[in-house]
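Reading a protein record of the kind used here takes only a little practice. An example makes this concrete, so a full record is given next.
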Amino acid sequence: MNEILFAEIYYICVAIMLILGFKTYRSMMKNTQKVSFLVVAFLHILYFQTDLVRMTNTQNLFLNEMSFLFFSLCTFSWFNYIQTMLEIHYIKKTQTLIALVPLIVSVVLLLVNTLNGCLFYIDHNGNFQEGPFYLLYVLINDLYFLISAYQAYVYSCRAKNYQQKKSYQILGIYMAVIMIVGTLQDIFRSIPIFCVGTSLSILIVYISLEEQMISIDPLTQLNNRNRMEQYLFECMRNADANMYLLVLDVDKFKQINDTYGHAQGDLALKSIANCLKEACIEKSDFIARYGGDEFVIVYKGNDVEGLCQRIHTYIQQLSFPFDLDVSIGCAPYQSGLRKWNDWFIVADKQLYQEKKKLKDR
């Protein structure tokens, strides 16, 4: 490949990393997530720069060693980022040491390589040649991607809400894609496949996760109205006869705000949101804050009455200086419905009837 074109591709990838690093620095991510992603971006920049110089001077053993080292650090940085996003914390030192084993082995192999060329060597013609332990080095670093992908898959299966499930699935898919890209790079070494593939994958992951964050209600950490509309639209396209739409409204919420203040009202809304998460035991349940003191649940199960009862029970057990409960309007999915708005209107009418009964008491 033309050296100028080769360099342009690498510098475009570096520019992508710099932009993502800057955007991450100014994002709403938690501090630990922000720091771990910035480390990922910084190490990839170092790797791209080193690999570019190495490709233009393949006979330099030191540059090859540095390129391999930064590659190992990149794989570990992604493993660390996945642990941070999944909120996996290592309490014992032995757990941390085990997590570092692949990186330590990679560094040892690189040190030994300078003596006997066990990973790679430069032949008499100045060409890069694989050593007997080259494949072992690749597999050791792939362990970080394999473990991360598996963890993301397991956590997505265990996720209690739709937003978390989607975020974990995105992370898991990325880990699998980057392994495929790395394999292709080993086959086509004269083409910067890993550089381009990694940069595009990181960009897609960043945009996807940012979209997930934008879809979150800041007070309750539930899906917001915009995400709810998207989800209901998807439900109408993939019609499931066994679906229920629940619209919930906090009873006498205006009175709570007027009497006890908006701070207590916000605290009540956050507590109710937690109760909804606990009550929705089905993995496919979708929960959102529609607006104000209204919530929406899309339930895919066979015991909607049991769900409603759990919601009332959990909320009534909350400790506040005022009575707290919700009214619930429920509407099963019907094949005649064409728009999600129509489905919502049916559930909202049921909610209105429940609120009317409450006033008449």
Residues 285 and 299 are 5 Å apart (CA to CA). The mean pLDDT is 86.
